Amino acid sequence: MGMPQLVVAAVLVEGRSKSEVARDYGVSRRWVITLIQRFLAEGESGFQPRSRRPVSSPQGTGVDVEDEIIRIRKELDKAGHEAGAATIAFHLEQRHGATPAVSTIWRILSARGFVTPQPHKRPKSSYVRFAAEQPNERWQLDVTHWALADGSGAEILNIIDDHSRLCVGSDALAVFKGHDVDVSFRKAAATYGDPAGVLSDNGAVFTGRSRGGGRVALEVTLNHRRIRFRHSRPYHPQTCGKVERFHQTQKKWLSTQPRARTLRQLRAQLAVFADYYNTVRPHRALGRRTPIQAYQARPKALPSLTPLDDTHYRIRHDKIDPAECSLCATTAACTTSESADDTQETHVLVLVHDLHIRVVTNDGELITELQLDPGKDYQPQAKT
Question: Are 334 and 256 within 8 A, CB to CB?
Answer without folding.
Answer: no
